Every structure is written in structure tokens, then in C-alpha cells.
Amino acid sequence: MRDFKGRVAVITGGASGVGRAIGTQLAAQGARVVLADIDQARLDATAAEIAADTGGDVIGMQVDVTKAGSVDALADAVWARFGAVHLLFNNAGVGLGEAQRTIWSLPANDWHWGFDVNVFGVVYGIRAFVPRMLASGEEGVVINTSSANGGLRSLPNTPIYAASKAAVTSISEVLHQQLLREGGKVRAAVLFPGPHVVNTSILASKRNRPADYGDDDGNKPAYETMEDLVRTTGLKMALTEPEEVASFAIEGVRQGQFWLLPESADGDAKVIERTENLLARANPASAW
Known about the structure:
This protein is an alpha/beta fold. The protein is 46% helix and 12% strand. The chain has helices at 17-28, 40-54, 68-82, 108-118, 120-136, 148-151, 159-181, 226-233, 242-254, 265-279, and strands at residues 8-12, 32-37, 57-62, 87-90, 140-145, 186-191, 259-260. Helix 2 links the parallel strand 2 and strand 3 (57-62). Helix 3 packs parallel to helix 5 (120-136) and helix 4 runs parallel beside helix 7. The mean pLDDT is 91.
């Protein structure tokens, strides 16, 4: 897909962070953009700001990606308004107050919430949109947001997040193969935001935690912002801004790439090390 002018793009988690940046850049390139998010107030403000800044066709639609019916309703509303979808970014995601905690100490409700947003949000998006995208006979791309943490190698300080992103990578690979069997007009891609820690508010996403999942267990998160994470862990790296991720993702879609994975000397080395250990049947190397 070389040209986005007139294309319809749906972006979950579109009210902030990477989703907002993708929406802004696509609108500037002439796409008709639907930002979908659970946070109605932020969604309305973001859609209005992007429309004003770009002069593009941008609307906000509220969705709870943890509910299949809500995602189905989003698809219904988009098709009723535009009659097509060409780009679906299953991008909604949450971080949890899990950093530096053991797997066995984390509440079950945290696991349910993390997987319902990060994994089932992708699954429900695929179920609601892909059949209609295929039926249209038009070119389309489904882009699922994973993470190098879990999606490629699992860091030990965020077990829920890493496990959920491993699932997203696997789902995306399977989707890629299945769409090829359908003729390849609709294809899949998987996005790994980076190459460094991305400067978003995902660590504060508990503000949107539905009451269905109960309160957390009262433990204060180890990090409140991405700056906190980098400083506390001693990571020697700059932050990557959402706009950089958006530019990289959009260009990768334009080039027809499946692996939307930025080059990273440290990250590539860790993936190679993990692969070599796997092929050698060796125990995992320390990730600390």
C-alpha cells in the first residue's frame, strides 16, 4: 500500500501515545482516520486537535477492546460511516504495576486485565474487521502492536506484559500465514515500538482500568513514567518518541513489511543470543 490518501484507518488506543502519533501522520497524508479509545474525554480532544492541525478527516469513537461486543460495534459504526477499512492498527495496550515483582505475587485480576487488553483486544479486532476487509476485495493491512519485551525476548521484571506481547507476535505470524491463503490482498504486520523505551503514558494506563477487574492490590508501581523506568533501571539509552515509532510503522506498511522492527545493536544482539541458546538447547542467559 503505497498511498494512504482516501484510505480509512482505524487505530485502537488512538487517544494518546503511539496511536495518536500514527493518527496524526496518516491524517496529514490524506487518510480518513478513526481514533478508537476507552477514554472518551481524551479521545474527543485528540481527534479535534489532529483535525485542526492537519485539516484531515479525523473522528473519535469510544471502544472497550476487552469486550467483543464493543469492538463489533466499532466495526459496524466505521462501515456505516465510511463503507470500508484499509488499515487496522490493533494498538491499544496497558502496562501494569508489576515491575520488579514476582509472578507468584501478582493478583489474578492483573493478569486478566493485561491479557484482555493486550491480547484479546487484538483478537477481537481481527474477528470484527478482517472478514469484512476480505469481503470488500480491497487492499488492506492489519498491524498488531507487540513489543520486543515478550514479543522477541522476555524481560523478567514485567511478566504479565511480556507474556501478553509474546502472544501478540504469535497471533500476528499465524494471521500472516492465514491471510496469504486468502489471496494476500489483506495482509498482516507486527509492530515493535522502539528501538529504545518509548516515551508514552502506558505506565499510567491503570487510570482506565474498568471496575470489572477490581482494584489492584495497593502495591505502589516501581515506575510512574518512562523517564522513571530509564533512570531507576540505569538503562543507558535515550527515549524514543511516539512520532518516531509512527513514522517507522507507516513507512514499513508502505514497503509491505511484516516485521516492523527497528534496528537496535543491543536488542538485535539479545535476540541472536536467545536464538543461539534455543538452538543449542542451552539454558536462557541472564536477562538482568
